[in-house]
Amino acid sequence: MTRHARNCTAGAVYTYHEKKKDAEASGYGTQNQRVGKDSVKGFDCCCLTLQPCNNPVLTADGYLFDKEAIIQYIITKKTEISRKMKEYEHQKKKEEAELAELAEAERQSKIKAFLKTEKNIAGNSNNIMKKGDNKNATPSVSNMTEGRDKHLPSFWIPSKTPSVKVKKIEKPDKNVLCPMTGKPLKMKDLIDVKFTLVKDPDDKKSLIIKDNRYMCAVTHDILGNSVPCAVIRTTGDVVTMECVEKIIKKDWIHPITSEKLTEKDIIPMQRGGTGYAQTNCNLEGRYERPVLQA
Q1: Which intervals of the chain form a coiled coil (predicted)?
Q2: Which of 3, 56, 130, 217 is the most exposed, fewest CB within 10 Å of its CB?
Q3: What does the DSSP 8-state code read for residue 171?
Q4: What is the pLDDT of residue 67?
Q5: In a 3-state reduction of DSSP, which class is residue 16?
Q6: For the chain, how long is the longest CA-to-CA vector?
Q7: How far apart are CA 228 and CA 218, in angstroms?
Q8: Is 180 helix (H, G, I), strand (E, B) or coil?
Q9: Reported pTM
Q10: Whether the Cβ atoms of residue 110 and residue 102 lie closer than 8 Å to each other
């Protein structure tokens, strides 16, 4: 039997390609599509602004931020934490006042119970003498006597309306968390990054529209999303992971400054990730559409 192209409609079987093509044209069903290059963040772009960094800094986990953006983020989070802390302290003082009121009310109720008991003991003899006179007394039919006013089913009485409990505020964490990893983030832990510009006198384009903007500080290899990079903590120079494996790890000496390095001084850069797609992960976008039902 001869092979047919996938667009051939002479077959007796409704193929998967034909079904997918018809579903896409119908406007129904979930549609999956691989995202393009524009949906992947550049390796030299800030994780907050998604734009090339003017003053790049790196976290200990290898995430790149623009210094202005991350400082503004930290200030905003500290202001929010301060506001939440004030709300928490206000709630705590309110709870302490309520507990004090309950303790005072319990003390007053004990005093009233004691006085009532003393009054009953004192008036017990009078009640015995008047017991014969109250035999013919008719009980009251009022709803407000004999404690019946506390058990009325009327929903319009304020004491019977259901009360909504105020949501309890938990004590906020005083640490500012990294927007990418969720770990505590401090300004003193940020490392200044120095990108090495590509030296091409014939290329007169602006830096932001260049395809090849930066290169390795040691080997001068062009950097990009497909090239794993690392930052040397002591100087902030960006080098390729190939340079780290083949040159730096041989004697653990900085190739430019000749200073001694350790394994902690090499920070691999996290590259190409956004909230929509990440490098080496699932690069598919899902579009939810109405389901066609029979």
Answers
A1: 78-112
A2: 3
A3: P
A4: 94
A5: helix
A6: 122
A7: 14
A8: coil
A9: 0.64
A10: no
266/253 Cα distance (integer angstroms): 12
Cα-trace Rg, the chain: 38
| Contact (Cβ atoms closer than 8 angstroms) between residue 258 and residue 235 | no
Counting every residue written for the chain, the total comes to: 294
Structural domain boundaries, residue 87:
41-114+171-193
State how far the Cα of 251 lies from the Cα of 272, in Å rounded to an integer: 31
| Residue 179 counted as domain residue | yes
Least reliable range by pLDDT among 67-71, 113-117, 206-210: 206-210
Q: Are residues 89 and 202 in the same domain?
A: no
- Give residue 153's pLDDT: 58
Q: What is the pLDDT of residue 191?
A: 93
User: SS3 helix, strand, coil % of the chain, rounded to 5?
Assistant: 35, 15, 50
Per-residue pLDDT band for 286 (boundaries 50, 70, 90) equals confident
**Which backbone phi and psi does 45 adopt, to 5 degrees?**
-100, 150
